[in-house]
Amino acid sequence: MNSKVRGLFRIALHLTLFFPAVFLLAQNAWAADQDLIGRVNRLCGPLPQAMPSEQNPLTPAKVKLGRMLFYEPRISIDGTVSCAKCHPLSLYAADGLKKARGNSYKESPRNSPTIFNAAAQISAHWVGNRTGVEDQARQSLIGPPSYGMPSYASVEKILREIKGYLPLFQEAFPGESEPVTVDNFAKAVGAFERTLVTPAPFDDFLQGKAGALTGEQKRGLVAMLDGGCLTCHFSPYLGGQLYRKFGIFAPYQTYTKSSPVDEGRFAVTKDEADKHVFKVPVLRNVAMTPPYFHDGSVEQLAEAVWIMAKVQLGKDLPPEQVSDIVAFLKALTGRIPAAALTVPVLPAKQ
Amino acid sequence: MNSKVRGLFRIALHLTLFFPAVFLLAQNAWAADQDLIGRVNRLCGPLPQAMPSEQNPLTPAKVKLGRMLFYEPRISIDGTVSCAKCHPLSLYAADGLKKARGNSYKESPRNSPTIFNAAAQISAHWVGNRTGVEDQARQSLIGPPSYGMPSYASVEKILREIKGYLPLFQEAFPGESEPVTVDNFAKAVGAFERTLVTPAPFDDFLQGKAGALTGEQKRGLVAMLDGGCLTCHFSPYLGGQLYRKFGIFAPYQTYTKSSPVDEGRFAVTKDEADKHVFKVPVLRNVAMTPPYFHDGSVEQLAEAVWIMAKVQLGKDLPPEQVSDIVAFLKALTGRIPAAALTVPVLPAKQ
Fold first, then answer.
1. Less packed terminus of chain B by CB within 10 Å, N or C?
2. Reduced to 3 states, what is the DSSP secondary structure of residue B75?
């Protein structure tokens, strides 16, 4: 055999040995992806197009009015607070502060969560003292550290003085003799919030597109599934469905350096079992909404991930795994609906 | 003649007498409108499509970046202040407060004017202590009652930490080795503001459409021309071109009940002649941007109009004339450019 023939023979041998190996590897990877997609679909399921409510059906007129009222500061005691203050859409509907600032710069007791993908939780707020987004919108108006108004009647008085609102409330709540009410304010704002879902690369993955996540992101997802993170952070929102104690293996403040230490849901129920219990937060868009935890005590997502594993699961995650999980969490950063990103122009006072 | 013929004769007589009268009246009205359009065009002139600057040429990349930076609160000392805080577009780019509130709820010395149609004034701010919109954007960053940052370098540090800004600054300022600077922040925000012109029914009138103003509005415009209001409130912006003493015929505080009394431009020049001197404000969108005057001391537009005539012109305007003028001022409420009403989504910190 001359060298040319020997060369061809060697190539043929390589092909015979390696192609099946490559094929088997690819087949295994495909099967692993399908397995992962199936596994995570059972825990999460697809993100809906909106988060409707039987008590508050969505209509275009109600959503439009709600988007306006979301930006309305003239119904706060000092004219500085609107929903958009603590939930600016430009920062993924969170304010970037440790704790929100309301009227007269009063500090809110806890961190402002994003209102994206927020309406389908068991309750609103960290400790479940608001039944849902409508209740949250309503109670904010008289909340001392938020709008700080003395009464619902005082809010209604201002809304009625701004004449341009009447036709918009009439359209959103047809047939009502006095539609300009705080209840309808709450329904309109709630309806707007119910439209705020942000589909992300993770949803493409859930729908079967294995390539929507990078290898690192898939490793991060597997780590979260195997580690038990999704035991609490399940649902299409990856959270919002349970209350859980923060600090099972160690007090959370050991790592978050929180001061003061918040007793959580105990403040609502006065049940000892609810001490340091908080609602499991939604993880969607988490990379866009620092700082973290109920008190915004941690600025870096990687640190928050490490602390969660430490105090909730008793695990000391190695840096590579933290990094994989952070990569996965970035796949939860979603696309904000264009209609939500239009600034509404509010009616004049005179 | 029978009654039918008499009837026809009577109709013919009426037509002969009245048609020319109606025609003459219409012709007079037309001539009066044309005269008014000509007169006001000489004092105001057409609103441009943007307010360009030789020092800061407008490019789409610069305007886009400026719109983002306009909403950026993470470069303020407590994370609560952005341009949009005192100039929310939903309220016609003014905040509705007597005096603006900056970082840590600090009170600004004066009322926030709208930034719509604002870039072509002789200066920014009420007392001319900012050379223009770029200078205003820059100095706000270190202004103690606004962003309150300790230095420009500290702002640049944060802007550079938010990695997503680098490509946007590079695109807006091509060829610069370090484009992420406070100077370029100021240019970008200024460029965005230079696009914010709001054409109104008044502009249609200026362009010859006599029907764009109602009869009441035309009477109001004539009252302003005859009364001398446009001696100061001239230009396409109806103001912004002169400094003038507020309170020529009487101290302004006699009627505005202002306390404390602001010495105006004297604070900048230390010239006795500048005591109680302020920049003549732009009147565009005035009906949408209460409260009024440099200290927001007056809530109602009608009251502000009456006070202006009283203290600047020594006239006690009758209520009908105030009402006509207010009607005309409403014809200055303009259409906000759609591109300005999109909320920009800001890059993540990590």
1. N
2. coil
**Which residue reads 């009420």 in tokens?**
B126
Q: Which residues contact A309 (CB under 8 A, 6 or more apart)?
A: A227, A229, A315, A316, A317
Superfamily (CATH H level) for B60-197+337-341:
Cytochrome c-like domain (1.10.760.10)
> B80 vs A92: CB contact, 8 Å cut-off?
no
* pLDDT over threshold 90, residue B8: no
Please give the full DSSP string across B123-192, using - where no structure is assigned.
Answer: SBSTTS-BSSHHHHHHHHHH-TTTT--S-HHHHHHHHHHSTTHHHHHHHHSTT-SS--SHHHHHHHHHHH
How do the domains of chain B map onto residue ranges?
33-47+199-330, 60-197+337-341
The length of chain B, given as a count of residues: 350
Per-residue pLDDT for A200 more than 80? yes
Is-above-0.95 flag for pTM? no
Separation in Å, CA of A124 to nearest CA in chain B: 23
Instruction: Note whether A33-47+199-330 and A60-197+337-341 share their fold.
Output: yes
Decide: B265 and B274 in contact? Cβ < 8 Å: yes
Q: What percent of chain B has pLDDT over 70?
A: 99
Q: What is the ipTM of this complex?
A: 0.93
Report which DSSP code applies to A278.
E
The topology (CATH level 3) of B33-47+199-330 is Cytochrome Bc1 Complex; Chain D, domain 2 (1.10.760)
pLDDT digits over B43-76, tens only? 998 899 999 999 999 999 999 999 999 999 999 9
**Which chain B positions have a beta carbon within 8 Å of A350's beta carbon?**
287, 290, 300-301
Residue of A nearest to B91 (CA): A346
pLDDT at A228: 96
Q: Are A146 and A140 in contact (CB under 8 A)?
A: yes
Question: Could you tell me the two tokens for A86?
Answer: 């603590």
Instruction: Check whether A25 has a pLDDT greater than 90.
Output: no
- Res. A97: pLDDT tops 60: yes
Pairing of strands A277-279, A243-245: antiparallel
CA distance B180 to B172: 10
Which pLDDT score, from 0 to 100, does residue B1 have? 53
8 Å CB contact of B343 and A343: yes
Helix (H, G, I), strand (E, B) or coil at B344: coil
